[in-house]
């Protein structure tokens, strides 16, 4: 009997027909067209094996190659999905569905077709807001957003869209994972689902069992182009503030504080006396930016922002971006092992710039050895002399102890330290001579610490932190 009970509990909902009936008419097919210049060597479009159109396209393009290239401008069409969020005619879809389109149309379940105008788009989250004008006397069916934060892995969901141009199609699955980063943009925190999502589903809604939109289907992983059960949707709680801004301003107005951040690794957490790796480590602060004006310094670990926990480096840009511009917020930082609460006023991100940036490993600099050096931690270091400043092209205003060589196959080499880098601080204490470093390491060993936190600067002044073992 326990086996039968388990089977009953895992078979899924008995039916989603009632929910589907309520929301189906709010889902639309998005068709676009654009005029493109003639080009040579137009590739045959990729179609799923066995598609009824596969043989037709192969024959068509074979004739094109035999007849020579057509030099006339041509119209190109594409298909996607979307959904109505307001009876007045507001429709949400993906930006990539309508990008570069000359004309956009929304095709409704009853067979009607309305021309759509672009209200605004957001390339970073891949969303677009469209507007259609309903026919006189006709009210469009709309759906509302739900709370994506309430979803749990294993919750049932259904996707409705326009796969392969077939029209309104419903599939059912579960939430497979949350907060997925697929390297598509700076604010990745996708919902992952095994509900079948294919080409043409882009921009369509992902519903919970109450019929609320909890995601916008955006991407799939598929070697073949068809569903293999790995689809991704922008969470509704990420999308709704963006859509509200597009509706009000026709553009996004994201928060920005002006910091360069990096991940808190276990070694860095230990060197900063943190109980666990969490938060975002501030590598540098933009001059006269909101963070600088609020008192945030390089070496601070931001662990909370405006009442939201900063779990890791990736979560901070998302939280900041969703914070209203000009809002005064509390920022909790860990500085020298103690928590402090600072206040700052959130600025506005220039959409042409990066978000709160993350540090990158510096490029290798030519190796050179001065007359007097000291070896420690797998490094050969020297006081910064005028000759070394010139050889490594280090900016005049920078100070620190210069690394003149790095021993291969050491933690220092593994962490990307190279000749020409400067050690600016050791555990948030400034260093200008090798003796300063040696003294600080001895103090850390006496305190029972296993690693030292180094602030490293490249020749241009870009800084980052790394922890090196001192055992």
Describe the structure.
The protein has 471 residues and is an alpha+beta fold. Among the domains are: 148-249, Trypsin-like serine proteases (Thrombin, subunit H); 255-358, Roll (Pdz3 Domain); 374-469, Pdz3 Domain (Roll), CATH 2.30.42. The protein contains eleven helices and 28 strands. The strands form five sheets. Strands 14, 15, 16, 17, 18, 19 and 21 form a seven-stranded mixed sheet that branches. Strands 22, 23, 24, 25, 26, 27 and 28 form a seven-stranded antiparallel sheet that branches. The protein is elongated and about 85 Å long.
Compute the gyration radius: what is it?
Answer: 28 Å
- Unreliable runs, pLDDT <50, ≥5 residues? 1-9, 360-371
Q: How would you state the average pLDDT, rounded? A: 84
Structural class: alpha+beta
Total DSSP helices = 11
General shape: elongated
CATH topology of the domain at 255-358: Pdz3 Domain
Major beta-sheet overview:
7 strands, mixed
N-to-C terminal Cα separation, in Å? 58 Å
Helical residue percent band: 10-25%
CATH architecture title of the domain at 255-358: Roll
> Which CATH top level class of the domain at 255-358 fits?
Mainly Beta
The total beta strand count reads: 28
